[in-house]
Amino acid sequence: MRIRLIFSLKNKGAYLPFHHQYILAQFLKGLIVKGGREEFFNYNYFNFSGLKGQTKVSRSGLHYYSSLVTLVLSSPNEDFMDYLLEQVFETPKIELGNLILSPEYTEQEFEPTLEASNKFVCISPLVLITPTFNDESGKRFINPDTDEFSDLLYESTLTRMERSGWYSQEQMESFYKFQVVPDMNYVNKLREQQKKFARIYSVYDMDVKYEVRGYTLPFTLYAATEVQDFVFKCGLGAFTHKGFGMLDLANHLPSQRTEPYKFKREGFIPYKAQQEKEKSSDSGEGQEEL
Question: How far apart are CA 269 and CA 283, in angstroms?
């Protein structure tokens, strides 16, 4: 499921860095831990976009001028999504960089019908390599029209799918068909205009800063529909739970594909409050004496 989380912006003109996925990742991780459900502390099967809104560019970064801004969240786990949204709406004032936000409402995107081949666009940078400490390999440029580019994405995707435990061994063996074919007309056009489709980004993991190369380009993915569904909901490539590799279908009109989403707010007991209620019940507090 893909949820649009809409915030009101309290200080128009405030800015975020051009690439702010690490700020969003730290914010979401804090919310996940704050909620207290340990089974989600290291949950990695989710993905999110950058913050969307009307922006202007300056040397400082992106200045936001719209009254509302949007963050797209994606995960196949509805329980996790509701838990995360619960934490968001328990935080009436949110500071992201220089922005002051307040959560307003949520919308759910209708799930598209995915085929054995789909053309995607990257709505957050696509990272191919997970570096190790004091390792520069994550910054290495890999030409998008090489087999290595597609093979690295294949290996990371199948590894994540296998670790999820959602697929049988027979299914995993059937996912051998996988090919990423970038739109080289788009890439070559950017090169002619001296514009970049691949940049170096910072990412933080276990309090360690890494630098990785991210690619933003359209491509066609040839793979089984289960694989297509997985990358659409969980992201493609490395560091997807830190906001990299979020995809959208090309030529898919965003205004025609949402409905209101009321996750479980009405009558919903926050997790920590539920824990306290259970403790009180177990200790016999509030019971009448016989």
Answer: 20
Q: In whole angstroms, give the CA distance from residue 196 to residue 136.
A: 20
Enter the pTM of the model: 0.86
Domains and CATH numbers, the chain: 2-109+257-281 (3.30.70.1890), 117-249 (3.30.70.1900)
Specify the amino acid at residue 275: Q
**How far is it, in rounded angstroms, from Cα 23 to Cα 204?**
10
* Secondary structure E strands in 75-207: 94-96, 99-109, 117-122, 126-127, 178-182, 198-205
Query: Is-contact 172 182, C-beta < 8 A?
Result: no
> pLDDT digit string (tens) for 154-169?
999 999 999 999 999 9
What distance in Å separates the CA atoms of residue 90 and residue 202, rounded to the nearest whole number? Answer: 29
With beta carbons less than 8 A apart as the criterion, state whether 68 and 106 touch.
Answer: no
Phi, psi of 126 (to 5 degrees): -100, 120
Place 260 in a pLDDT band, splitting at 50, 70 and 90. Answer: confident
The full DSSP string for 97-120 is TTEEEEEEEEEEEPPP---SEEEE
In the three-class reduction of DSSP (H, G, I as helix; E, B as strand; rest coil), residue 20 is classed as: coil
DSSP H/E element including 29? helix 21-34
For all residues of the chain together, what is the average pLDDT?
88
Given pLDDT bands bounded at 50, 70 and 90, which one contains residue 132? confident
Q: Do residues 9 and 101 lie in contact, with contact meaning Cβ atoms separated by under 8 Å?
A: yes
Please tell me the predicted confidence (pLDDT) of residue 207: 81
Residues 53-68 have pLDDT tens digits of 999 999 889 999 999 9
pLDDT at residue 13 tops 90: yes
